[in-house]
């Protein structure tokens, strides 16, 4: 079976799982929390493998602990913002504290930095300290925080639609760039990080992202009977911008893989590679589109 066929079949299976996860909500959305925990664990394993050298090795257990604490903060925020469920009293109180001022994520990042330096000084030689500490710190920032923003985006009034919108734009951009590059690619983009990328692939990716988003909007409004707060022109502009951001996410992971001298982050997903190979763009696009709609709401526009 060819790599392209494996890639398509894996994408179909993952799409069904993804759609089921979004529409099927259980008690206190615990499946989202469990799914996020699994993604964080697998993503950290792959990321810390990038950072491992003869002299340095990230503190996986410490990075995982703080990543899960950070993700739990976002989960509590999500429950507090979610109108469809009534969390237990202590969760409501915690979410109220998070909304009113004190936010523990900066505190957790500072605590992580101090903890990792203490571990490095007491347990490891100073050779490679910068990469051990820096690599450990990168885990929560690069993986846990973006995955937490998935929950914040879902908590918005049109959250389910926004999740589909950013997913369609991101995946259509990636698929369009992949097949556009294979079929029409003649002019290399000249990127040392990813020398096989072509301008034709990037243009095709942008076009498929715009088309995919428009099809989603028409289909969503037709079957839901609800007028979406995102118009045609806004969708086109947003699709283009998010498509560019998704490319940055892909190139960021490519840079780490090239530095680590590996082709794929893992082999978990046939035709794609590892978790980071599949989700690298979403780690950039989900926070980006969340803050776009948050800023749009602050300006008084409907979201």
From TrEMBL:
The keyword Chloroplast is assigned to this record: no
Q: Enumerate the UniProt keywords alphabetically.
A: Cell membrane, Lipid biosynthesis, Lipid metabolism, Membrane, Nucleotidyltransferase, Phospholipid biosynthesis, Phospholipid metabolism, Transferase, Transmembrane, Transmembrane helix
Catalysed transformations (reactions): a 1,2-diacyl-sn-glycero-3-phosphate + CTP + H(+) = a CDP-1,2-diacyl-sn-glycerol + diphosphate
Q: How does the record classify its membrane topology? A: Multi-pass membrane protein
Full protein name: Phosphatidate cytidylyltransferase
Q: What is the lineage of its organism?
A: Bacteria, Pseudomonadati, Spirochaetota, Spirochaetia, Leptospirales
GO CC annotation terms, alphabetical: plasma membrane
* Domain of life assignment: Bacteria
Q: What pathway annotation does it carry? A: Phospholipid metabolism; CDP-diacylglycerol biosynthesis; CDP-diacylglycerol from sn-glycerol 3-phosphate: step 3/3; Lipid metabolism
GO BP terms: namely:
CDP-diacylglycerol biosynthetic process
> What Enzyme Commission number(s) apply to this enzyme?
2.7.7.41
Q: Name one Pfam family in it.
A: CTP_transf_1
Q: Which residues cross the membrane?
A: 7-26, 32-51, 63-83, 103-122, 129-155, 161-180, 201-220, 232-252, 273-293
Origin species, per record, is Leptospira bouyouniensis
- Intracellular or extracellular location(s): Cell membrane
Presence of the UniProt keyword Nucleotidyltransferase in the record: yes
What are the recorded GO MF terms, alphabetically?
phosphatidate cytidylyltransferase activity
Family statement drawn from the similarity comment of this UniProt entry? Belongs to the CDS family.
């Amino acid at each position: 079976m060819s790599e392209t066929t494996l890639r398509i079949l894996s994408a179909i299976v993952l799409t069904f799982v993804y759609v089921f996860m979004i529409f099927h909500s259980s008690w206190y959305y615990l499946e989202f929390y469990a799914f996020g925990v699994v993604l964080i664990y697998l993503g950290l394993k792959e990321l810390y493998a990038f950072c491992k050298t003869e002299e340095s090795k990230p503190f996986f257990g410490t990075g995982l602990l703080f990543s899960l604490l950070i993700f739990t903060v976002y989960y509590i925020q999500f429950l507090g913002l979610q109108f469809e469920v009534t969390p237990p009293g202590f969760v409501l109180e915690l979410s109220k504290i998070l909304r009113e001022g004190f936010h523990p994520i900066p505190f957790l990042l500072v605590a992580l930095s101090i903890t990792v330096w203490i571990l490095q000084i007491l347990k490891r030689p100073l050779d490679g300290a910068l990469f051990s500490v820096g690599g450990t710190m990168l885990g929560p920032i690069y993986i846990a925080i973006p995955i937490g923003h998935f929950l914040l985006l879902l908590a918005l009034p049109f959250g389910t639609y926004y999740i589909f919108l950013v997913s369609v734009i991101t995946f259509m951009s990636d698929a369009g760039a992949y097949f556009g590059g294979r079929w029409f690619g003649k002019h290399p983009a000249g990127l040392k990080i990813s020398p096989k990328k072509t301008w034709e692939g990037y243009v095709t990716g942008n076009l498929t992202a715009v088309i995919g988003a428009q099809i989603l909007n028409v289909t969503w409004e037709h079957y839901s009977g609800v007028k979406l707060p995102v118009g045609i022109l806004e969708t086109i502009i947003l699709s283009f911008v998010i498509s560019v951001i998704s490319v940055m996410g892909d190139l960021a992971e490519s840079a780490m893989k090239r530095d680590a001298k590996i082709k794929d982050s893992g082999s978990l997903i046939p035709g794609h590679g590892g978790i980071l190979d599949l989700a690298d763009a979403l780690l950039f696009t989900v926070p980006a589109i969340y803050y776009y709609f948050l800023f749009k709401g602050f300006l008084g526009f409907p979201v």
